[in-house]
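W.,

You were right to be curious about this one. When I first looked at the sequence I had no strong expectations either way, so I just let the prediction run and decided to look at it fresh. Below is the sequence, 624 residues in total, followed by the output.
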Amino acid sequence: MQKAAVWQAKIAKGRILVATLMAQGVEGIRTVLSLIEKRHGIFVHDLLIAVVSVPLAVWMRTGTLDGALFKHSLVYTLISASIFLWLQLYRSVWHYFSLHEFMAVCLAAIYSCGIYFPLMVLMGRYNPWPRSTIFVLWGVTTFLLCLTRVTVKFLRGRWLDGGVHAYASTPETRLLLLGSAKAIQAALQALGQVPGKPYQVLGCLETPYNALKHVDGVRVLGTMASATSVVEQLNLEGRHPHHVVLLDPITESAQALLQLTKALHPLGVCLSHIDHLEKGHPTVTPFVLEELLRRSVPHPKKAPSPLRGKEVLLVHAGQPLMRAVATYLSAEADVRGLTLCDLSETLLWETQHDLPALDRPIQAHLLLSRDQESFEEVMAQAKPAFVMAAPSLSHASFVDKHLSQAFTLLVKEVEHLILAAKTQESAKLVYILPGEPGPATTQIEALYNLVEAFLLTQDVTVIRTGHVFEDEESLPSRIEAALDTPGLVDISESLTLYRSLSLEMLGERLVGALSGLMKNPLEPGEGLWLVPDLVVSPEELVVHMQSLSPHDVPAPTLRRVPVGHPFLGASFEVIHAPLSKTAVSSRYSLALQGKLDLTNVLQSLKALAKAHDDKGIRAQLRGV
């Protein structure tokens, strides 16, 4: 028994040793492949293949090797090098080797052998080789060039990176993937893992452009700059794409993305974004793609409406957005009753008389003020299950000159509305904000971004509708479908940010929101707080804060605050993948205390680096 136990222990140790060696071997192979697959590595590899092809072909044809091989190999290698550069074989990615890349390799071998053949005849006048040697040379060159590529594709696709996945044969949701080759490959594999989902990838839009014709069998149709023309051509062919999915972290400017969004919107295409990829490690998962594409997946049965048989109260019902919602609820939704309230008696009367009648009368109540008592009085009479509200346009009248005052007034109104809703049992508050979550280009967008951030701290469902809502008939129905979703819901049909915001997008958004305060700096002691939950390294915060111009934008100060810190303004979470291995997870706050300059930012960052005892960061900051 003791001997058996000893042998079992030795076998277990042997298995552990073998598993360790295999893991190290796989990691070593992955490292070697990553070096070979670089452009200069591919070019050097192809030249070595050309060098050994001539002696190998001569030996296979004649069975002997003579002294003229060096001269012939040198000539053939120089010819092949020029052909490979001309056809740009070095731009190929072996991981995505397919029939189209095979044809390119065959063509390169044909050109090389065709140019070399007359030189071979002239150089072999006194000791000629058989003329059929050129065909053997073509076969050897083609075989060796393809052998390495096929081996790498097999190792990466089957062993190192997982298996090959099949795609649905009868798709109903058509996609264009926009991103780098690795991100597109990861997305294709994730789509293949979604069971029973009818997705079809029409093609890829590669950025940066890498001169690839196909990625895993999917055609590369162009770049980001040619996205509009590609979509127009697909529409003419009867293959209208539903989504252009941006896979990589945003490297283009927000303005370029917004211009692309506006160009695609008239074509009926939604530009969606997954900023979910760590540097060099694509991590697109089936869950993320399924969540991203949930709006266009056809459902055989419509889900029951959360408003069915419920009382609904619309606050500021005279505003255009709420009037569109009221029209839909009175005509389409199976609500039990509808109550309208507004500060303007004229707008309230117009809205009430423009609506089709329900089985029970539509109630209308005039709000006397924006305080808690007025909201509680209306709610006590309506007893709503859902309270749907939107900002009044009266806030926009002075927001260009008084952003901080407009924010304060609107936040106070929202606070009163939240407190009034809590007095009603099972009443759920839904706040609808025009515009999209993203960088603010106007002061009114900045105001809505700040209000959104505040609402997300109050356990309120916030719905962003996009910029155009008057002409969209589907908007109210999309609002209805989003009522049960907690947190922030973006139902706009343009640039959509899911789960995360890149640091650059977050910075642009905060800068756009705070820039209006330059005209009206806060009084001493006042503070407008924005607390994103970032997972980034301090050095990246340094780089980004340095990019902010102190002449145009008030530079915020970085300060650490405890969770649950009492502040007037807003707190919102940003789920962000780590941007480096040295990332630290902390809760930072961006505080604006009057007119600040870049010196305050750097001093705070130095203190932050000192607190983390990071000598490397502190050394970088000394030279700033």
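Here's what jumped out at me. The domain at 173-292 is CATH 3.40.50.1980 (Rossmann fold). And, maybe more interesting for your project: The longest strand covers residues 199-206.

Coffee later to discuss?

I.
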